[in-house]
Design a protein that fits this description.
By secondary structure, this protein is an alpha/beta fold. It has helices at about 5-15, 20-25, 30-45, 60-80, 95-100, 105-115, 125-135, 175, 185, 200-210, 225-230, 240-250, 280-295; strands at about 50, 55, 90-95, 120-125, 140-145, 155-160, 165-170, 190-195, 215-220, 235-240, 255, 265-270. It has a 5-stranded mixed β-sheet with strand order 4-3-5-12-6, with helices on both faces. It has a 5-stranded mixed β-sheet with strand order 9-8-10-7-11, with helices on both faces. Helix 1 (about 5-15) crosses helix 2 and helix 2 (about 20-25) crosses helix 3. The longest helix has 24 residues, at about 60-80. The mean pLDDT is about 90.
């Protein structure tokens, strides 16, 4: 059985879309379809239900994902054992859009200088997609802004902490107030937060709803960039990682609002606990750890 068929299967399983998988694998969509059908014929099971807007894994496919990932893991071990060279290859890293836009470009640039044979493929993804990618073997590492990572098959290490900032548009009454805003005052505002499932945003939403009796005018959006844009447009206020708003604050497109104490959010470096860590992944782990340990995170 060709491992390329397994790689294609896992990519379709993660993206839930033949077209997206083809683009990621640099193959034609017809080739991806042919490879999936070949694997289905070899295994004697249907792997995907073809839907109008994508592909949904069958129960058989869900059972096969961890086994398929283990096959690719074994292949990587074999190739590494045969090689007697500097670490090389591709390392797939997922992170939320805040970390992707603020920290990861610096890490990738440094790695290109120090280890030009290592290619880092960066995937903007939330917690759920990152966890599924690690489990399927499509991701080697994930960086999550989460208070905790409570998955028994994953290993997480806190490598930094990100400060949070309460911000509003310039000229907002709370930004010019001499007294820190209370949760009750914040709950009376239009508030924009990152989507549900983001632990620090969920925690803040809970505090706001508790203060207002669950009547907060709260909007959850899929990216910190979208949240930031809404606040800069004067639509409301938000609480975001300081790195996500530092530039806008310096350019006075946003203003800091003094308010309740906000605990820092851990930056969790997550790996699959049972999967082999290749030499190139070790290099990227070291680069990420070094970057976050030597970079200020309070903006």
């Amino acid at each position: 059985m060709e491992t390329q068929l397994i790689r294609t299967f896992l990519t379709v399983a993660r993206t839930e879309n033949f077209t997206s998988a083809a683009a990621e694998l640099h193959l034609s969509q017809s080739t991806v379809t042919t490879q999936v059908k070949s694997l289905e014929k070899m295994l004697g099971v249907q792997l995907f239900d073809r839907m109008p807007r994508g592909a949904r894994m069958t129960a058989a496919a869900r059972r096969l994902v961890p086994e398929a990932a283990a096959v690719l893991d074994a292949e990587a071990r074999l190739r590494s054992a045969a090689a007697d060279t500097e670490p090389s290859g591709t390392v797939a890293v997922a992170a939320g859009d805040t970390l992707c836009s603020t920290h990861l470009p610096h890490v990738i640039a440094a790695l290109r200088r120090s280890h030009p044979n290592i290619a880092v493929h960066l995937f903007p993804a939330g917690t759920h997609a990152s966890v599924e990618g690690l489990r399927s073997g499509q991701l080697d590492l994930a960086l999550l802004l989460e208070d905790s990572v409570a998955f028994p098959d994953l290993t997480a290490t806190v490598i930094a902490r990100e400060a949070l900032s309460l911000v509003g548009p310039p000229g907002h009454p709370l930004a010019s107030s001499r007294k820190p805003a209370t949760w009750r005052q914040l709950a009376d505002e239009d508030v924009f937060l990152h989507e549900e499932g983001c632990s620090y945003s969920d925690r803040i939403a809970g505090r706001l709803q508790a203060a207002s009796g669950a009547h907060t005018r709260l909007t959850r959006l899929g990216s910190s960039e979208a949240v930031r844009s809404c606040v800069m447009a004067g639509l409301g206020i938000s609480i975001l990682p300081r790195t996500a708003v530092a530039t806008a604050l310096r350019e006075e497109r946003l203003a800091v609002i003094e308010g309740p104490a906000l605990p820092d959010v851990p930056v969790q470096l997550v790996r699959h606990g049972e999967r082999w860590t290749s030499p190139e992944v070790h290099v990227v782990v070291q680069a990420l750890t070094h970057h976050f340990s030597t970079t200020r995170h309070d903006g």
